UniProtKB/TrEMBL annotation, chain A:
Protein name: Lysoplasmalogenase
Keywords in alphabetical order: Membrane, Transmembrane, Transmembrane helix
Species this protein is from: Flaviaesturariibacter amylovorans
Transmembrane segments: 6-23, 58-77, 89-111, 117-137, 149-168, 188-207
From TrEMBL, chain B:
Enzyme kind, highest EC tier: transferase
The EC number(s) this enzyme carries: 2.7.13.3
Transmembrane segments: 12-31
Protein name: histidine kinase
Lineage of the organism: Bacteria, Pseudomonadati, Bacteroidota, Chitinophagia, Chitinophagales
Pfam families from the UniProt entry: HATPase_c, HisKA_3
Length: 216, 261
Protein backbone atom coordinates (compact mmCIF):
# COMPACT_ATOMS: atom_id res chain seq x y z
CA UNK A 1 0.00 0.00 0.00
CA UNK A 2 1.53 3.32 -1.12
CA UNK A 3 1.62 6.49 0.98
CA UNK A 4 -0.87 9.23 0.12
CA UNK A 5 1.02 12.22 -1.44
CA UNK A 6 -0.74 14.69 0.87
CA UNK A 7 0.71 12.78 3.83
CA UNK A 8 4.14 12.83 2.21
CA UNK A 9 3.93 16.63 1.97
CA UNK A 10 2.82 16.72 5.60
CA UNK A 11 5.75 14.58 6.76
CA UNK A 12 8.14 16.64 4.68
CA UNK A 13 6.84 19.83 6.35
CA UNK A 14 7.38 18.36 9.83
CA UNK A 15 10.86 17.24 8.75
CA UNK A 16 11.63 20.75 7.43
CA UNK A 17 10.42 22.33 10.69
CA UNK A 18 12.49 19.85 12.73
CA UNK A 19 15.65 20.69 10.76
CA UNK A 20 14.95 24.43 11.07
CA UNK A 21 14.37 23.94 14.80
CA UNK A 22 17.70 22.16 15.19
CA UNK A 23 19.46 24.96 13.33
CA UNK A 24 17.88 27.62 15.53
CA UNK A 25 17.97 25.63 18.78
CA UNK A 26 20.79 27.69 20.32
CA UNK A 27 19.59 31.04 18.99
CA UNK A 28 15.87 30.87 19.88
CA UNK A 29 15.91 29.55 23.38
CA UNK A 30 12.32 30.56 24.03
CA UNK A 31 11.13 28.08 21.35
CA UNK A 32 13.08 25.06 22.61
CA UNK A 33 10.02 23.04 23.74
CA UNK A 34 8.67 23.34 20.19
CA UNK A 35 12.03 22.34 18.73
CA UNK A 36 11.94 19.18 20.85
CA UNK A 37 8.30 18.47 20.01
CA UNK A 38 8.83 18.63 16.23
CA UNK A 39 11.15 15.59 15.94
CA UNK A 40 8.91 13.75 18.41
CA UNK A 41 5.93 14.48 16.11
CA UNK A 42 7.88 13.32 13.07
CA UNK A 43 8.88 10.06 14.77
CA UNK A 44 5.29 9.49 15.88
CA UNK A 45 3.90 10.06 12.39
CA UNK A 46 6.53 7.83 10.80
CA UNK A 47 5.82 5.11 13.36
CA UNK A 48 2.06 5.39 12.76
CA UNK A 49 2.67 5.21 9.01
CA UNK A 50 4.78 2.11 9.57
CA UNK A 51 1.98 0.49 11.65
CA UNK A 52 -0.55 1.38 8.94
CA UNK A 53 1.68 -0.22 6.30
CA UNK A 54 1.97 -3.29 8.56
CA UNK A 55 -1.83 -3.23 8.94
CA UNK A 56 -1.46 -3.16 12.70
CA UNK A 57 -3.50 -1.08 15.19
CA UNK A 58 -2.03 2.38 15.66
CA UNK A 59 -4.57 4.55 17.53
CA UNK A 60 -2.91 3.71 20.86
CA UNK A 61 0.08 5.82 19.70
CA UNK A 62 -2.10 8.93 19.60
CA UNK A 63 -3.35 8.26 23.15
CA UNK A 64 0.22 8.77 24.34
CA UNK A 65 1.25 11.39 21.79
CA UNK A 66 -1.64 13.82 22.52
CA UNK A 67 -0.45 14.12 26.14
CA UNK A 68 3.16 14.70 25.07
CA UNK A 69 2.01 17.19 22.42
CA UNK A 70 0.09 19.26 24.94
CA UNK A 71 2.90 19.02 27.49
CA UNK A 72 5.40 20.61 25.09
CA UNK A 73 2.96 23.34 24.06
CA UNK A 74 2.31 24.11 27.73
CA UNK A 75 6.06 24.34 28.34
CA UNK A 76 6.34 26.64 25.32
CA UNK A 77 3.60 28.96 26.63
CA UNK A 78 4.99 28.79 30.13
CA UNK A 79 8.36 30.05 28.83
CA UNK A 80 6.84 32.87 26.81
CA UNK A 81 3.91 34.22 28.80
CA UNK A 82 4.70 37.44 30.67
CA UNK A 83 4.58 37.41 34.47
CA UNK A 84 5.19 34.70 37.08
CA UNK A 85 1.57 33.67 37.73
CA UNK A 86 0.65 33.63 34.05
CA UNK A 87 3.51 31.20 33.47
CA UNK A 88 1.98 28.76 35.91
CA UNK A 89 -1.39 28.73 34.10
CA UNK A 90 -0.27 26.47 31.19
CA UNK A 91 1.23 23.99 33.64
CA UNK A 92 -2.01 23.96 35.65
CA UNK A 93 -3.96 23.41 32.40
CA UNK A 94 -1.66 20.54 31.51
CA UNK A 95 -2.25 18.84 34.87
CA UNK A 96 -6.01 19.06 34.36
CA UNK A 97 -5.72 17.90 30.76
CA UNK A 98 -3.43 14.96 31.54
CA UNK A 99 -5.75 13.77 34.31
CA UNK A 100 -8.83 14.01 32.05
CA UNK A 101 -7.10 12.46 29.02
CA UNK A 102 -5.69 9.50 30.95
CA UNK A 103 -9.03 8.90 32.68
CA UNK A 104 -10.83 8.97 29.31
CA UNK A 105 -8.29 6.61 27.75
CA UNK A 106 -8.61 4.17 30.63
CA UNK A 107 -12.40 4.28 30.96
CA UNK A 108 -14.52 5.73 28.13
CA UNK A 109 -12.35 5.79 25.01
CA UNK A 110 -10.28 2.62 24.67
CA UNK A 111 -6.83 2.79 23.11
CA UNK A 112 -8.15 0.94 20.06
CA UNK A 113 -10.23 4.02 19.21
CA UNK A 114 -8.97 7.38 17.94
CA UNK A 115 -8.84 9.83 20.94
CA UNK A 116 -10.94 12.53 19.27
CA UNK A 117 -12.44 13.81 22.54
CA UNK A 118 -8.98 14.25 24.05
CA UNK A 119 -7.85 16.10 20.92
CA UNK A 120 -10.91 18.35 21.07
CA UNK A 121 -10.13 19.25 24.69
CA UNK A 122 -6.51 19.90 23.75
CA UNK A 123 -7.65 22.11 20.87
CA UNK A 124 -9.90 24.05 23.19
CA UNK A 125 -7.10 24.63 25.72
CA UNK A 126 -4.62 25.60 22.99
CA UNK A 127 -7.14 28.11 21.60
CA UNK A 128 -7.48 29.62 25.07
CA UNK A 129 -3.71 29.84 25.57
CA UNK A 130 -3.15 31.29 22.07
CA UNK A 131 -5.88 33.87 22.57
CA UNK A 132 -4.46 34.88 25.94
CA UNK A 133 -0.94 35.19 24.55
CA UNK A 134 -2.03 37.12 21.43
CA UNK A 135 -3.86 39.67 23.56
CA UNK A 136 -0.99 40.07 26.04
CA UNK A 137 2.15 39.88 23.88
CA UNK A 138 4.75 41.81 25.89
CA UNK A 139 5.36 45.14 24.12
CA UNK A 140 8.94 45.95 23.24
CA UNK A 141 9.86 49.33 21.76
CA UNK A 142 11.09 49.09 18.19
CA UNK A 143 9.91 45.48 17.80
CA UNK A 144 6.94 44.86 15.55
CA UNK A 145 4.40 42.19 16.51
CA UNK A 146 5.45 40.10 13.50
CA UNK A 147 8.94 39.91 14.95
CA UNK A 148 7.61 37.97 17.94
CA UNK A 149 8.08 34.25 17.24
CA UNK A 150 5.09 33.39 19.38
CA UNK A 151 2.80 35.63 17.30
CA UNK A 152 3.16 33.23 14.35
CA UNK A 153 2.86 30.14 16.52
CA UNK A 154 -0.26 31.42 18.31
CA UNK A 155 -1.90 32.58 15.07
CA UNK A 156 -1.20 29.18 13.53
CA UNK A 157 -2.50 27.28 16.57
CA UNK A 158 -5.59 29.49 16.78
CA UNK A 159 -6.61 28.99 13.14
CA UNK A 160 -5.73 25.32 13.03
CA UNK A 161 -7.39 24.23 16.24
CA UNK A 162 -10.49 26.37 15.69
CA UNK A 163 -10.79 24.84 12.21
CA UNK A 164 -10.20 21.31 13.46
CA UNK A 165 -12.77 21.81 16.22
CA UNK A 166 -15.31 23.00 13.64
CA UNK A 167 -14.67 20.03 11.35
CA UNK A 168 -14.70 17.51 14.19
CA UNK A 169 -17.85 19.09 15.59
CA UNK A 170 -19.64 18.81 12.28
CA UNK A 171 -18.16 15.42 11.38
CA UNK A 172 -21.17 13.39 12.49
CA UNK A 173 -23.47 15.64 10.53
CA UNK A 174 -21.25 15.37 7.43
CA UNK A 175 -21.17 11.61 7.94
CA UNK A 176 -24.96 11.53 7.88
CA UNK A 177 -24.81 13.19 4.47
CA UNK A 178 -22.20 10.84 3.07
CA UNK A 179 -19.84 8.69 5.07
CA UNK A 180 -17.11 8.49 2.42
CA UNK A 181 -17.25 12.19 1.62
CA UNK A 182 -17.26 13.13 5.30
CA UNK A 183 -14.03 11.21 5.86
CA UNK A 184 -12.46 12.71 2.74
CA UNK A 185 -13.48 16.24 3.79
CA UNK A 186 -12.20 15.67 7.32
CA UNK A 187 -8.89 14.31 6.02
CA UNK A 188 -8.40 17.17 3.58
CA UNK A 189 -9.40 19.92 5.99
CA UNK A 190 -7.26 18.49 8.79
CA UNK A 191 -4.33 18.14 6.43
CA UNK A 192 -4.78 21.67 5.08
CA UNK A 193 -4.87 23.11 8.59
CA UNK A 194 -1.80 21.07 9.52
CA UNK A 195 0.01 22.56 6.51
CA UNK A 196 -0.92 26.03 7.79
CA UNK A 197 0.28 25.10 11.30
CA UNK A 198 3.67 23.87 10.13
CA UNK A 199 4.10 26.87 7.84
CA UNK A 200 3.48 29.10 10.85
CA UNK A 201 6.04 27.10 12.86
CA UNK A 202 8.51 27.43 10.01
CA UNK A 203 7.94 31.20 9.86
CA UNK A 204 8.42 31.53 13.63
CA UNK A 205 11.58 29.45 13.51
CA UNK A 206 13.19 31.13 10.53
CA UNK A 207 12.09 34.76 11.16
CA UNK A 208 15.10 36.77 12.22
CA UNK A 209 14.05 38.75 15.26
CA UNK A 210 17.17 40.88 15.73
CA UNK A 211 17.12 40.72 19.50
CA UNK A 212 16.01 37.40 20.90
CA UNK A 213 14.93 37.41 24.52
CA UNK A 214 16.79 35.15 26.82
CA UNK A 215 14.32 33.51 29.14
CA UNK A 216 16.24 30.76 30.86
CA UNK B 1 -31.75 17.31 -1.68
CA UNK B 2 -32.52 21.04 -1.54
CA UNK B 3 -32.55 20.88 2.28
CA UNK B 4 -29.14 19.23 2.34
CA UNK B 5 -27.80 21.84 -0.04
CA UNK B 6 -29.10 24.57 2.28
CA UNK B 7 -27.44 22.88 5.24
CA UNK B 8 -24.12 22.72 3.40
CA UNK B 9 -24.45 26.42 2.60
CA UNK B 10 -25.11 27.13 6.30
CA UNK B 11 -22.02 25.15 7.20
CA UNK B 12 -19.90 27.08 4.72
CA UNK B 13 -21.28 30.34 6.12
CA UNK B 14 -20.49 29.16 9.65
CA UNK B 15 -16.96 28.19 8.66
CA UNK B 16 -16.49 31.57 6.96
CA UNK B 17 -17.79 33.37 10.04
CA UNK B 18 -15.35 31.42 12.17
CA UNK B 19 -12.46 32.39 9.91
CA UNK B 20 -13.64 35.99 9.98
CA UNK B 21 -13.81 35.90 13.77
CA UNK B 22 -10.27 34.52 13.95
CA UNK B 23 -9.03 37.20 11.56
CA UNK B 24 -10.70 39.86 13.74
CA UNK B 25 -8.99 38.39 16.82
CA UNK B 26 -5.59 38.60 15.12
CA UNK B 27 -6.26 42.20 14.00
CA UNK B 28 -7.39 43.14 17.52
CA UNK B 29 -4.24 41.59 18.95
CA UNK B 30 -2.12 43.63 16.51
CA UNK B 31 -3.96 46.84 17.46
CA UNK B 32 -3.69 46.09 21.18
CA UNK B 33 0.01 45.31 20.80
CA UNK B 34 0.56 48.69 19.13
CA UNK B 35 -1.30 50.42 21.98
CA UNK B 36 0.79 48.59 24.57
CA UNK B 37 3.94 49.43 22.65
CA UNK B 38 2.99 53.13 22.59
CA UNK B 39 2.29 53.04 26.33
CA UNK B 40 5.59 51.25 26.89
CA UNK B 41 7.48 53.96 24.97
CA UNK B 42 5.63 56.68 26.91
CA UNK B 43 6.47 55.02 30.22
CA UNK B 44 10.12 54.69 29.22
CA UNK B 45 10.23 58.36 28.23
CA UNK B 46 8.57 59.39 31.51
CA UNK B 47 11.11 57.37 33.50
CA UNK B 48 13.98 58.90 31.50
CA UNK B 49 12.54 62.39 32.04
CA UNK B 50 12.13 61.77 35.76
CA UNK B 51 15.70 60.48 35.94
CA UNK B 52 16.97 63.60 34.15
CA UNK B 53 14.96 65.83 36.50
CA UNK B 54 16.39 64.08 39.54
CA UNK B 55 19.87 64.35 38.07
CA UNK B 56 19.35 68.08 37.53
CA UNK B 57 18.01 68.50 41.05
CA UNK B 58 21.07 66.77 42.42
CA UNK B 59 23.39 68.90 40.30
CA UNK B 60 21.64 72.06 41.46
CA UNK B 61 21.80 70.95 45.09
CA UNK B 62 25.53 70.23 44.79
CA UNK B 63 26.04 73.58 43.06
CA UNK B 64 24.13 75.37 45.80
CA UNK B 65 26.20 73.64 48.47
CA UNK B 66 29.41 74.67 46.70
CA UNK B 67 28.23 78.26 46.32
CA UNK B 68 27.22 78.33 49.97
CA UNK B 69 30.65 77.07 50.96
CA UNK B 70 32.39 79.69 48.80
CA UNK B 71 30.13 82.40 50.25
CA UNK B 72 31.00 81.34 53.79
CA UNK B 73 34.68 81.27 52.94
CA UNK B 74 34.47 84.79 51.46
CA UNK B 75 32.56 86.09 54.43
CA UNK B 76 34.51 84.33 57.18
CA UNK B 77 38.06 84.30 55.81
CA UNK B 78 38.69 86.81 53.04
CA UNK B 79 36.22 89.31 54.52
CA UNK B 80 37.79 88.98 57.95
CA UNK B 81 41.29 89.37 56.54
CA UNK B 82 40.30 92.52 54.68
CA UNK B 83 38.57 93.94 57.74
CA UNK B 84 41.72 93.28 59.72
CA UNK B 85 43.81 94.92 57.00
CA UNK B 86 41.52 97.98 57.15
CA UNK B 87 41.88 98.06 60.94
CA UNK B 88 45.64 98.02 60.58
CA UNK B 89 45.48 100.74 57.95
CA UNK B 90 43.50 102.90 60.36
CA UNK B 91 46.22 102.58 62.98
CA UNK B 92 49.01 103.69 60.60
CA UNK B 93 49.96 107.32 61.18
CA UNK B 94 50.40 109.89 58.44
CA UNK B 95 54.11 110.40 58.99
CA UNK B 96 54.85 110.11 55.24
CA UNK B 97 53.34 113.53 54.64
CA UNK B 98 50.50 114.66 52.46
CA UNK B 99 51.23 112.22 49.62
CA UNK B 100 51.42 109.31 52.03
CA UNK B 101 48.14 110.30 53.69
CA UNK B 102 46.45 110.47 50.29
CA UNK B 103 47.74 107.02 49.31
CA UNK B 104 46.63 105.63 52.66
CA UNK B 105 43.19 107.16 52.20
CA UNK B 106 42.87 105.63 48.73
CA UNK B 107 44.00 102.23 50.02
CA UNK B 108 41.44 102.41 52.83
CA UNK B 109 38.72 103.28 50.31
CA UNK B 110 39.76 100.39 48.07
CA UNK B 111 39.78 97.94 50.95
CA UNK B 112 36.38 99.23 52.11
CA UNK B 113 35.02 98.80 48.60
CA UNK B 114 36.46 95.28 48.41
CA UNK B 115 34.80 94.43 51.72
CA UNK B 116 31.41 95.75 50.55
CA UNK B 117 31.69 93.94 47.19
CA UNK B 118 32.72 90.69 48.80
CA UNK B 119 29.86 90.89 51.28
CA UNK B 120 27.46 91.50 48.40
CA UNK B 121 28.95 88.60 46.47
CA UNK B 122 28.79 86.38 49.52
CA UNK B 123 25.12 87.25 49.96
CA UNK B 124 24.21 86.46 46.36
CA UNK B 125 26.13 83.20 46.41
CA UNK B 126 24.64 82.03 49.65
CA UNK B 127 21.29 80.39 49.01
CA UNK B 128 20.16 81.01 52.60
CA UNK B 129 20.54 84.76 52.11
CA UNK B 130 18.57 84.60 48.84
CA UNK B 131 15.88 82.44 50.44
CA UNK B 132 15.50 84.67 53.49
CA UNK B 133 15.48 88.00 51.61
CA UNK B 134 13.28 86.89 48.72
CA UNK B 135 13.70 87.12 44.96
CA UNK B 136 13.22 90.89 44.58
CA UNK B 137 15.80 91.76 47.19
CA UNK B 138 18.27 89.26 45.77
CA UNK B 139 17.90 90.64 42.23
CA UNK B 140 18.21 94.22 43.51
CA UNK B 141 21.38 93.30 45.36
CA UNK B 142 22.82 91.49 42.31
CA UNK B 143 22.11 94.50 40.06
CA UNK B 144 23.67 96.84 42.63
CA UNK B 145 26.78 94.69 42.65
CA UNK B 146 27.02 94.84 38.85
CA UNK B 147 26.23 98.55 38.81
CA UNK B 148 29.06 99.31 41.25
CA UNK B 149 31.62 98.18 38.66
CA UNK B 150 30.54 101.21 36.65
CA UNK B 151 30.53 99.43 33.27
CA UNK B 152 26.81 98.81 33.02
CA UNK B 153 23.71 100.76 33.82
CA UNK B 154 21.27 98.39 35.48
CA UNK B 155 17.64 98.71 36.37
CA UNK B 156 14.88 96.59 37.84
CA UNK B 157 11.35 97.03 36.53
CA UNK B 158 8.46 95.57 38.46
CA UNK B 159 4.91 95.46 37.15
CA UNK B 160 1.88 94.03 38.88
CA UNK B 161 1.52 93.05 42.49
CA UNK B 162 4.55 91.05 43.61
CA UNK B 163 3.70 87.68 45.11
CA UNK B 164 5.91 85.33 47.08
CA UNK B 165 6.76 82.11 45.28
CA UNK B 166 7.95 78.84 46.73
CA UNK B 167 11.44 79.63 48.19
CA UNK B 168 13.09 76.84 46.16
CA UNK B 169 11.48 78.16 42.99
CA UNK B 170 12.59 81.71 43.84
CA UNK B 171 16.13 80.46 44.34
CA UNK B 172 16.18 78.64 40.98
CA UNK B 173 14.63 81.66 39.27
CA UNK B 174 17.29 83.86 40.84
CA UNK B 175 20.04 81.53 39.58
CA UNK B 176 18.57 81.84 36.08
CA UNK B 177 18.66 85.64 36.38
CA UNK B 178 22.27 85.42 37.60
CA UNK B 179 23.24 83.21 34.67
CA UNK B 180 21.54 85.58 32.19
CA UNK B 181 23.27 88.58 33.78
CA UNK B 182 26.63 86.78 33.57
CA UNK B 183 26.02 86.05 29.87
CA UNK B 184 25.25 89.73 29.24
CA UNK B 185 28.36 90.82 31.11
CA UNK B 186 30.63 88.34 29.34
CA UNK B 187 29.34 88.28 25.76
CA UNK B 188 26.98 91.16 24.97
CA UNK B 189 29.26 94.26 25.05
CA UNK B 190 26.12 96.03 26.26
CA UNK B 191 25.92 99.27 28.22
CA UNK B 192 22.53 98.69 29.79
CA UNK B 193 20.89 95.66 31.42
CA UNK B 194 17.26 95.62 32.45
CA UNK B 195 15.68 92.97 34.63
CA UNK B 196 11.91 93.00 34.65
CA UNK B 197 9.55 91.08 36.82
CA UNK B 198 6.00 91.17 35.70
CA UNK B 199 3.43 89.62 38.03
CA UNK B 200 0.22 88.49 36.37
CA UNK B 201 -2.81 86.71 37.77
CA UNK B 202 -1.51 83.21 37.16
CA UNK B 203 2.10 83.68 36.25
CA UNK B 204 5.19 85.71 36.77
CA UNK B 205 7.31 86.69 33.80
CA UNK B 206 10.97 87.34 34.48
CA UNK B 207 13.13 88.81 31.78
CA UNK B 208 16.75 89.90 31.51
CA UNK B 209 17.40 92.13 28.51
CA UNK B 210 20.49 94.00 27.34
CA UNK B 211 21.24 96.44 24.54
CA UNK B 212 24.35 94.56 23.37
CA UNK B 213 25.43 93.18 20.02
CA UNK B 214 23.15 90.11 20.28
CA UNK B 215 23.81 86.64 19.01
CA UNK B 216 23.00 85.53 15.46
CA UNK B 217 21.43 82.37 16.89
CA UNK B 218 21.32 80.53 20.20
CA UNK B 219 24.79 79.04 20.73
CA UNK B 220 25.18 75.27 20.70
CA UNK B 221 25.82 73.46 23.99
CA UNK B 222 29.55 73.10 23.29
CA UNK B 223 29.99 76.79 22.34
CA UNK B 224 30.65 79.63 24.82
CA UNK B 225 27.35 80.52 26.45
CA UNK B 226 25.73 77.33 25.15
CA UNK B 227 25.97 75.44 28.43
CA UNK B 228 24.64 78.49 30.26
CA UNK B 229 21.57 78.58 28.02
CA UNK B 230 20.98 74.88 28.48
CA UNK B 231 21.34 75.28 32.23
CA UNK B 232 18.79 78.07 32.28
CA UNK B 233 16.38 76.03 30.17
CA UNK B 234 16.78 72.94 32.38
CA UNK B 235 16.35 74.99 35.52
CA UNK B 236 13.15 76.59 34.20
CA UNK B 237 11.81 73.14 33.31
CA UNK B 238 12.48 71.94 36.84
CA UNK B 239 10.28 74.67 38.30
CA UNK B 240 7.67 74.21 35.57
CA UNK B 241 8.52 77.41 33.72
CA UNK B 242 8.75 78.22 30.02
CA UNK B 243 12.10 79.44 28.87
CA UNK B 244 12.71 81.59 25.78
CA UNK B 245 15.78 83.21 24.32
CA UNK B 246 15.55 85.98 21.73
CA UNK B 247 18.41 87.83 20.20
CA UNK B 248 18.72 90.58 17.62
CA UNK B 249 21.28 93.19 16.60
CA UNK B 250 19.73 95.50 19.19
CA UNK B 251 20.24 93.13 22.10
CA UNK B 252 19.36 89.87 23.76
CA UNK B 253 16.51 88.88 26.02
CA UNK B 254 16.10 85.83 28.22
CA UNK B 255 12.58 85.26 29.46
CA UNK B 256 11.07 82.78 31.90
CA UNK B 257 7.34 82.53 32.41
CA UNK B 258 6.48 80.73 35.61
CA UNK B 259 2.97 79.73 36.67
CA UNK B 260 2.17 80.95 40.16
CA UNK B 261 -0.75 78.72 41.07
Amino acid sequence: MGIDPKFLVYYFLIFLCSVAGMLRYREKRELRPLFVLLPVSLCTEVYVEYLIQQKRPYYFVYHVYEILDFLFFCLLFSRNLPGGRARLAPLALFTIYAAVAITLSLTRIPVSVYPSVQYSIESFFLILLSLFYLLTIPAESGKRIFEHNMFWICTGLLFVHAGILLVNGSYNYLKSLSSARALAIKDWVNMLFNYILYFSFLTATLWRTGSTRSLS
Amino acid sequence: MADRFDEVVIMIILASLLLLLLAVIVIVSVIKYKQRQRRHVEEKNAIRQQFNQELLHTRIEIQEQTLKHIAQEIHDNIGQTLSLAKLHLNTIGTREGHEGAEKLGTTKDLVSKAIVDLRGLSRTLNSDAVLSGGLLKAVESELALIGRAGVFTTSLEITGQPVSLDPQKELILFRIVQEALNNSIKHSEASRIVVSLSYGENSVCTSVADNGKGAVRAPAADQPGGTGLLNMKSRSEIIGGTFSFTSAASGTEVRVILPTN
